[in-house]
Amino acid sequence: MAIYPLLQFPDPLLNRPGKTVTVFDENLKEIVSNMFETHYAQENCAALAATQLGIEMKITVIDFSDMKNQPLCLINPEIIEKSGSHQEEEGCMSVSGVSAKITRASRIKIKYQDITGQEQQMSAEGFMAKCIQHEIDHLNGVLYLERLNHLKRKMLEMKILKLKIKKKS
Length: 169
Ligand code: NI
Fold this sequence. Notes:
With 169 residues, this protein is α+β, with helices and mostly antiparallel strands.
């Protein structure tokens, strides 16, 4: 078991997309279990994508239950249906100290593979739908900041920079 370091914006590795997982072996199980350990070691963490941990693979681990006992691991997730539109405040473990309103589909259907490589499908709405869309973005090398308009994004980036300087001094 190990806790992976969590990359922080503006680390360029956050923009490197994950590769499709094709081998479902013991090594993959180890990575997923380390990802969950890393997730549970963070405060207020809903989900983590492998790309936030410098791992170039399409894997995300999700658990936002109070008891941290509802782990969901999505491998190679893809949205196959979406509907509705919903705007809600969003934050990210890799962009600490700030948040912004992001518009996303309110209902989605995805396909993914489980830890054994078995294809699965699932429908989601509410917080789970938002969470999965945020994570799939991560796996494509996209941060929620990139979904904001230019001005809003620049303002938020300046705020992040200021927070970083404050932290150092
Ligand atoms: Ni995130």
